Amino acid sequence: MNATANTTTVYVPAPDGTPLATDLCLPDTPGPHPAVVIRTPYDRTAHRAELHGWAAHGFAALAQDVRGRYGSPGAWHPYRDHEEGDGAATVAWVRGQAWSGGGQVVAAGASYAAHCALVTALGAPGDGRPDAVIAAVPALGLAETAREPAGPERLRARAGWWAAHGDRPDSAPDALDRALDDDPGLLEHLPVIRLADRLGRALPSWPGLWDDCRRGRIVLRGSAARLPLLAVGGTRDPFAEDTVALWRGWGGPARLLLGPWGHRLTADRPLIASDRINLGALYVRWARAALAGQLEPERRGAISLGGSGRWHRIADRPADTSEETPTRTATWAFGAPTGLRLLHGREFTTDPARPVRSDDLTVPAGGAPADRCLLLSPPLPRPLDLAGPATARIHAAADTPGADWAVRVTALDPAGRAEPLAFGIVRRTDPPGQAVEVTVPLGTLGRRLPAGTRLRTEIAGHHFPAHARNPHTGENPVTATRLAPSRRAVTARGSALHLTVVARRRYVEPGPEICR
Prior knowledge:
Number of helices: 11
Distance between the termini: 40 Å
Number of strands: 21
Strand content: 25-35%
Low-confidence stretches: 1-5
């Protein structure tokens, strides 16, 4: 046992005896204390300030390296079943300590650590199950992190994560960036499954990442849960829809906080003062209410209207017209005077050798052969608050049996500055040349758009390098070695962009809303 300042390092035995390195920080006051357990692959020592914050509020706080990472020996296999057993053993160990007195435990974590907290919370009843769970920007599983719900592979994010953390006991956060400096076309090489050959180190788990296509297991298990959940996400987080699905499907008291953040729970642009939230203080307040049984049983949530400093109740159901969460669906029909006007690309060719890029918001001015369908709305006559799901429904055809449909909506302010607003991508297998209706979910939006904003909408066949390119040959995009162009046609009739807007402004304070 080693001690550093007020933090003690102990080794908690896993079910098979593997010693899991755990930092423990106890309050200065006499026990027993409720406890917070964080299990992470990202180095437990990075959480020491967080542990001290919990301890200052009367909680025993623990951060543990998962097996195979940093101070914990063993093999590192992301998302394997051992996380549930190791988490349960840790919670049971906590309850056996004198400072706990068999007391209450909150499992908490962000990203992969949220997965660890959730599988522990959903494990078998007994001393190994916590009393409440905090899941921030949850990375729910292999399938959820590897692919979009409709199939396209999240290439850039997974390549970055696996290069940084896969098949090693520690992390190299900039590993992919260094590799791209040496080979800027790294992600263009085929097949995708051989990416590790070009990273300069062994990555044996990379091919297996793409084998698991079973989504929704944690959400399904959560429907039978009875313990309280606090789900925290960001409208700019790629896993935001998994966070919302977890909240909507949870069987116990569930709270959702959806802020103007990305996956790191930070904003892409400076926040105004009223947008800022002390998440640490909110977690403590919620944990106390949850452990005291003070949370109302129904689902409640708050979403930030980014850019306004306001928060709105988020509806448990889309387009909820109830008094508490009054929203409605606003529609911008393609080709309508007040909808989306076609600029060019009613017919276009999507070529995976020259894909529309995810990291470039500029659009072609026209004249050249179209690589996307481009539409633009008139300026908004008044400010518009968005608070809920967005969807594009398009009537279109492709001349290849396999086709991805990517829709990107960009907000153009009155000065013409572009800012991403919404994105979605789906994979379809339809008869070549046959016109079909394609529904593209665009995520949950929380935003205030000022008067004069125009909505620019792009429909394309690729979104690279964020997503792997559909080869249009019928081959699996992960193993394909050949690429072919695909000709597309979009029909305005019946096509539209649908956004959830606030019908009547009923603002809330996020802290009281989440903790009641």
